[in-house]
Write a structure and sequence with these properties.
Residues 302-476 form the Helicase C-terminal domain. 47% of the residues lie in helices and 16% in strands. It is of the alpha/beta class. Helix 11 (260-276) packs across helix 13 (300-313), helix 23 (517-523) crosses helix 24 and helix 25 (544-553) crosses helix 29 (614-634). The protein is globular and about 90 Å long. The structure holds adenosine-5'-diphosphate (ADP) and magnesium ion (MG).
Amino acid sequence: KTTLDNILWQRSLQLRDRQEYWEESVEGRRMLESRRSLPAFKQRDSVLTAISQNQVIVISGETGCGKTTQIPQFILESEIAANRGAFCSIICTQPRRISAMSVSERVAYERGEQLGESVGYKVRLEGVRGRDTRLLFCTTGILLRRLLVDRNLRGVTHVVVDEIHERGMNEDFLLIILKDLISRRPELKLVLMSATLDAELFSSYFGGAGVIHIPGFTYPIRSHFLEDVLEMTGYRVTPFNQTDDYGQERMWKMNKHIPRKRKSQIASVVEDALTAADFKEFSPETQESLSCWNPDCIGFNLIEFLLCYICENESPGGILVFMTGWDDISSLKEKLQIHPIFGNPDRVMLLACHGSMASYEQRLIFEEPANGVRKIVLATNIAETSITINDVTFVIDCGKAKETSYDALNNTPCLLPSWISKVSAQQRRGRAGRVQPGQCYHLYPKCVYDAFSEYQLPEILRTPLQSLCLQIKILTLGSISEFLSRALQSPELLAVQKAIEYLKIIGALDENEHLTTLGRYLSKLPMEPKLGKMLILGAILGCLDPILTVAAGLSVRDPFLTPLDKKDLAEAAKSQFSRDHSDHLALVRAYEGWKKAEEESAVYDYCWKNFLSVQSMRAIDSLRKEFFSLLKDTGLIDGSPATCNSGRNDQNLTRAVICYGLYPGICSVVHNERSFSLKTMEDGQVLLYSNSVNARETKIPYPWLVFNEKIKVNSVFLRDSTAVSDSALILFGGSISKGDTGGHLKMLGGYLEFFMKPAVAEMYQTLKKELDELIQS
Ligand code: ADP
Ligand code: MG
């Protein structure tokens, strides 16, 4: 044996001694007793046998049965017991950083250890592990990053991929890579874990891998839909279908016979219910009661009503509220904290559970409340399958979800809340029946539930593929379309081609599909490439601060509110922020004001006066920080504010950087006598949304507008836009680096010629010639 083998052998013995010592201690035995009660524990032997006999196995079992905390632990224990402790290295991936952190801590605790001994974790910017760490929990993104420098995962003996049922982009991506890897590394073991019964799909993807199902148990749960909830408020609504010119619309007829006094009291409850259910058409009575609509508290009154109702009328038991995201949760939490019941720690233990909570908050979630105190947890869909809170008997489900995680290496953010699937709704509901019979309140009508899709489409089929394509390139996995054709479910060829084409236009890939320098940087930024581009150039040109706001603003719900009855006031409020023919720069000003108001604790006042959404402004604030730290990761900035904003507060510079990010979203401004019209090459005439600051102008002293998004209704409408000059477009439309000359400059040239701007076209020709020469040399 070599010296190294000897050392590892010695260490393995130590690890075994330590493990045996713990197993025989009083606490160790007590811990084992409680672990034994988990359904996964009953399958310990069959799981271990299956792993030793197969290279790949799929384990499915209901949420909370002990997959995440137990299965990797079983592997670790058995390796250590067999004196292989120091020779094994187990990696378990989690889709979210928060679960990697909380699970590793839990497993270390169950083993009577500190985090960083045999169990550790690693997420972006953070991690705890030591010399003896044999079981590492990490995010899927971290494992993908490791593959970048170590494509064979040398030294790793087991890879456990958790939560594969979620079908996240990263996980699907990882599976393609692992499928290749296991043939190169026949001794590597792969364990896939899913919370739903779709094990067959994964098993056949890996050529008939072994499947183990862990049976679970839930107590019966009573479901209430919005109709029932409204009935509880004393306000009755009946749905009816009405076919009109617009096709079939579901409408709600309000019960007219409501005493006046009650009406004001419950109007807000009902109004919340209806907006929560996202109905576009309201009966006139409803519209009347909707006139005081404030989107910042969608559903809040209804949730508050239900929480009161449960606290006053129902038996003890924890309440789990599913909300869309961190911003909603923090607003509601703030609101509840000043409530006589929910703000009283002797009656209620009010907690939040979301992707960016601190670790002490995580621990509180699992703590049992004192006698007579009710636990209320406001959670994102993280509590659907990743985190199990044991003592929940009531679930309130708002029916919507959004992803807010930026941790994943290539996660394309989809930040607008959307309806969940039937499977998700059932998962949420199931959280109520773990310890005793429970109840679930769905804040949407039964007919909406019936219209939910059965499953959520896998992320790879529903989100833009640009970031994923960059990942494939940076990991040198060959041709993008060939690689993606080997996915569990492949995206359509057209979608792949579109993504590649876009990456070429923006200069991230050259004509031969090779990464450019820009592409290399973009692949390190887990966000839409257009945001990445802006941030990179903003950092280079020293105007990062406003660009952080712009990029964050493009990722959240529009912070400028336009209530229907106060449209003019709201638009006027927005135009105060605008002196530059730019919605994006108006947001930069609004944010600067918000920041000042925050220092003076006058955020609500400020937002109210300026028709701004408190939640969106908060979300922008936290995204800015997120983007900043991601940029720091790339090494483009060192993190000191001075270098990012080198003192130049130049609007035109910022404008050019916005143009760099949003290109090829451009349209030409054509002035006529009284006003102007807009044209794009693809759509011809386009219009501006009425809440754009540019829609209020009669003249725009710039030849172009860049925009983020166009929406086709009857005509094509542009959302937010920024006016830019010829030179900004020429210099920053696309990217100037080797290989782009053909792609983007040709296209830009086409644009200029199309809109007959001869002088500019000439300028462009000269520039192009010079550039070509420069590149040649
Ligand atoms: P699964 O992965 O199958 O959904 P888990 O392994 O996450 O199940 O959870 C198993 C049990 O361990 C659950 O009852 C859960 O409440 C409990 N648990 C998980 N993490 C913690 C923790 N940090 N503190 C206390 N209990 C926990
Ligand atoms: Mg789990």
